[in-house]
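Here is the promised in-class demo. Please do not try to memorize the tokens; focus on the logic of going from shape to residues.
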């Protein structure tokens, strides 16, 4: 920062989970005048996500400056070391300081609101930190704030805290829930800003992710399932307009000389189908079951014959392939000298799987993705169709390895979109030069703060 520039007394960061450049800077740009104003006065453009571009590790990478391998955080769920099981990630899995910890270390106040992964809330945190847990919190009936008294304060002013959209909602009811959740979250942010006066306020709205996963085919003309002029598409535009309005209100309360960053952790793209990766590994003779499934069913450790299995995978936005290595896994059989040829065999077989996107399957080994590899990391990361296809972990069922989007919906939740590598950022304020459009990496966005 040049000597002629004056440092801001405050920074606010508004994370819009899964908000892609195609919406913020193109199709919904006319509905977001605040964002357009910030873009005209600061820096904006594509924000390249991390490996993997998944909400929990991506926000942890962004707020710590560490990559997923250093964090040992590889998805929404992670391997339980010493077992074949998986568990949901929590705030306890992040052992590096966040950007707000650096603010607190300077003797200033900070607020971290709804930033994944932040459940459970930190009971040992400084009294200079205000925190409200993210979508990982199971509900308002469990402790979800720091200080603990803030939970009652929020409930009395804004109603019971809503950490996430009710995932049973669909259609117009889901859209109503998204509007209500966004209003509550921004009400809480404005209240914290006014009552606690933090030097840094960092919030993440998860509703943009939920909207995209529910309604993407209505929003993207490039999606093969696109429906023109759908009423819910107009409401989606209104939702983004609401976010823009609430960002403007937050800036007004923070003061016009505030640094403002609006960003997403990853983008969104059309979901073209899924790859039944464990069924593929089974047909290759690498994954052996104790019995033949009568129909498609989840792969659970109890179903696997580990004495004859050399590889298996976990499904999701990308595939994590694990080898059953001796002395690492509970019943490992793969010897150290067998790892390299086995990985080469798996890679060769995966690249032969049909790719309707034409983008090609991206296969990544941990050593090529991260500075360090900690925790129970996958031995291979596979982004089918370079994120155009979801990885499906079930076994049994039909003959096809590559299945349409409808099968993804049945296998693992919302099938509206898949994640994309390119998120978005806009940064404006005394500490940010006016640079115009450029590309930044997610984990280094806050290097200037």
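The designed amino acids, position by position:
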């Amino acid at each position: 920062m040049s000597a002629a520039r004056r440092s801001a007394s405050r920074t606010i960061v508004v994370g819009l989970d899964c908000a892609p450049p195609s919406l913020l800077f193109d199709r919904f740009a006319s509905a977001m005048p605040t964002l357009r104003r910030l873009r005209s006065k600061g820096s904006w453009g594509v924000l390249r996500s991390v490996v993997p571009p998944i909400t929990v590790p991506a926000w942890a990478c962004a707020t710590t400056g560490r990559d997923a391998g250093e964090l040992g955080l590889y998805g929404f769920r992670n391997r339980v070391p010493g077992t074949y099981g998986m568990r949901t990630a929590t705030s306890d899995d992040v052992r590096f300081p966040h950007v707000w910890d650096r603010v607190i270390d300077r003797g200033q106040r900070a607020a971290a609101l709804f930033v994944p992964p932040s459940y459970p809330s930190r009971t040992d945190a400084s009294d200079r930190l205000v925190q409200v847990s993210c979508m990982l919190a199971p509900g308002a009936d469990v402790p979800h704030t720091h200080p603990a008294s803030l939970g009652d304060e929020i409930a009395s002013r804004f109603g019971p805290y809503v950490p996430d959209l009710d995932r049973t909602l669909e259609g117009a009811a889901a859209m109503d829930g998204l509007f209500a959740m966004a209003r509550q979250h921004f009400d809480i942010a404005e209240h914290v800003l006014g009552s606690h006066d933090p030097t840094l306020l960092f919030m993440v709205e998860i509703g943009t992710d939920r909207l995209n996963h529910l309604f993407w085919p209505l929003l993207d003309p490039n999606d093969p399932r696109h429906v023109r002029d759908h009423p819910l598409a107009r409401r989606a535009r209104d939702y983004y307009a609401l976010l823009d309005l609430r960002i403007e209100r937050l800036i007004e309360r923070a003061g016009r000389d505030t640094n403002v960053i609006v960003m997403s952790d990853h983008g969104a793209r059309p979901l073209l189908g899924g790859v039944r990766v464990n069924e593929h590994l089974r047909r290759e003779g690498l994954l052996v079951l104790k019995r033949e499934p009568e129909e498609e069913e989840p792969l659970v450790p109890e179903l696997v014959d580990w004495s004859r299995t050399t590889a298996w995978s976990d499904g999701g936005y990308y595939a994590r392939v694990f080898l059953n290595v001796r002395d690492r896994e509970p019943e490992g059989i793969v010897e150290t000298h067998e790892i390299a040829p086995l990985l080469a065999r798996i890679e060769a077989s995966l690249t032969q799987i049909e790719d309707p996107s034409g983008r090609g399957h991206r296969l990544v080994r941990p050593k090529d993705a991260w500075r360090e590899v900690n925790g129970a990391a996958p031995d291979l990361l596979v982004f089918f169709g370079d994120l155009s296809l979801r990885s499906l972990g079930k076994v049994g069922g039909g003959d096809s390895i590559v299945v349409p989007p409808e099968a993804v919906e049945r296998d693992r939740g919302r099938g509206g979109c898949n994640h994309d590598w390119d998120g978005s950022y806009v940064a404006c304020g005394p500490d940010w030069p006016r640079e115009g459009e450029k590309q930044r990496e997610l984990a280094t966005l806050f290097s200037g703060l």
